[in-house]
Amino acid sequence: MLVIYDSHARAKREFVPIKPKTVGMYVCGMTVYDRCHIGHARVMVVFDMVVRYFRASGYEVHYVRNITDIDDKIIARAAENKESIRSLTERYIEAMHDDAAALGCLLPTAEPRATESVGDMVAMIESLIERGHAYRAANGDVYFDVSTFDRYGELSNRNPDDLRAGARVEIDEAKTDPLDFVLWKAEKPGDPSWDAPFGPGRPGWHIECSAMSTRALGATFDIHGGGQDLQFPHHENEIAQSECATGHHYVNYWMHNGFVRINEEKMSKSLGNFFTVAEVMRQYHPEVIRLFVLSSHYRSPLNYSDQNLDAARASLTRWYTAIKDAPQNGTPNPEVMARFRGVMDDDFNTPEALAIVFEQISELNRSKDANCAATIKAIGEILNLGQHDPESFLRWAPSSSDQLSDEAIEQKIAERASARANKDFAASDRIRDELQAAGIVLEDKAGQTTWRRG
Question: Which residues bind Zn(2+) (predicted)?
Fold first, then answer.
């Protein structure tokens, strides 16, 4: 039995899909005005893991992740760069796809863009106006009337009266209640706009996800995911406007991954304390980042530090060193695989799953058992870890490093082999010591010398 922690229920619940052995899952994607940071990487890797595990468990998964390609930040960045919005967003969409691929993430089944879904947003706003849940304000903006939805605040466990007491209304806003949120922004000079029955303008952020998710997956679907920071107000607003527009329950299970933290602060672009995925990948192999993310439970805070990334690199080095020369004719151990599925069925407990893998790695190092190697391979295929060529991973070097090149190392090894052949063992030992000081580990076996970076 697979159970998922549902943020709305604030408890683990047995997963019962709307359609047997089929999963409809929507995850809030990126606002493409900059490179993805490690917080975004966590979202991508976590929900890629969820998709892969569902599929390995026999489910058909419809995985939808949107792209927000129209937004105040995008408009401002394009103006700052003196380039078109299209040029800006296309560049960062391509960069996002490159980052996701490097991290071993599958493409979503569908990846709708906000600018290509405005018609659906207009239709949803029309429905909300007709049903008495939205109004056009004096400034031309259209707002959702929160007072018409009596379950507002349930997802985030917040009291609307308390929220009103602390709310602030901006000078240029014309809403009647501080909690009301914008569905449609009236046209402004120089901003992109679309025609609509309630006046030209562009959609607000919250309506985008409601329109794109229900278009792709229907009025009610299984799982909605995203970062913990989106729980309020974004996901709270999605529930209100979606259920009022369609008349149906919106989402059955809400999944939120925890923050990435640096010095006890959430990593984010707005705080200016973020590291882009591209920056980190110059120092660490992308698979190290993937293991780093999966080493913590997806709901827990993830503490970013060089020490934790170094630990992930050491763990992967141990993994690849163990499987490099492992026997290949075994079959996965059914008892171990059952343990693995047991912890994964318990709200995708990847730290416990990885503990099982490293138990098997220890056993493989001790016994050289083919079934043990096959078990490690089977679990690695599901988590998409340990899937690179071992020699390639073990020889990987940071792109910005001053480490010895592969060619220089091979030359040193050839010189050492020549020295050994000439029985110049002092020279041979000196070369080995030089390489060891440079972080290169030599392994002599059956008359051959192989190497890896330590």
Answer: 28, 209, 234, 238
* Domains 3-132+149-155+203-262 and 306-394 agree in fold: no
For residue 110, give the DSSP letter: B
Closest of 66, 7, 4 to residue 231, by C-alpha: 7
Fold of 3-132+149-155+203-262: Rossmann fold (3.40.50)
User: Do residues 139 and 172 lie in contact, with contact meaning Cβ atoms separated by under 8 Å?
Assistant: yes
Residue 84 has pLDDT above 90, yes or no: yes
Give the per-residue pLDDT at 365.
96
Domain boundaries, the chain: 3-132+149-155+203-262, 306-394, 406-453
**Which strands, in side-by-side order, build the sheet including 142-144?**
134-136, 142-144, 181-186, 201-203
Q: How many residues does the chain have?
A: 454
pLDDT on residue 336 = 98
Tally: H helices and E strands in the chain: 16, 15
User: What DSSP element (H or E) covers 372?
Assistant: helix 370-383
**Which pLDDT belongs to residue 412?**
73
pLDDT in tens, 388-447: 999 999 999 887 666 777 777 777 777 787 767 677 777 777 878 777 877 788 777 766
A 10 A CB-CB count for 106 gives 16
Q: How many Å apart are CA 370 and CA 69, to the nearest integer?
A: 49
Residue 66 has pLDDT above 70, yes or no: yes
Six token digits for residue 93: 């969409």
Q: Report whether 234 belongs to an annotated binding site.
A: yes
pLDDT of residue 248: 98
Instruction: Of 130, 140, 134, give the one whose Cα is nearest residue 237.
Output: 134
At 267-316, the pLDDT tens digits run 766 677 778 999 999 999 999 999 999 999 999 999 999 999 999 999 99
- Kindly give, in sequence order, each residue whose CB lies less than 8 Å from that of residue 265, ignoring residues fewer than 6 positions away: 271, 273
- Measured in degrees and rounded to the nearest 5, phi and psi for residue 37 equal -105, 180
Confirm or deny that 269 is annotated as ligand binding: yes
Q: What distance in Å separates the CA atoms of residue 263 and residue 329, rounded to the nearest whole number?
A: 47
CATH topology of domain 306-394: Four Helix Bundle (Hemerythrin (Met), subunit A) (1.20.120)
Q: What are phi and psi of 152, to 5 degrees?
A: -65, 130
Question: 355 is written with which tokens?
Answer: 């503990």
Euclidean distance between CA atoms 141 and 135, whole angstroms: 8
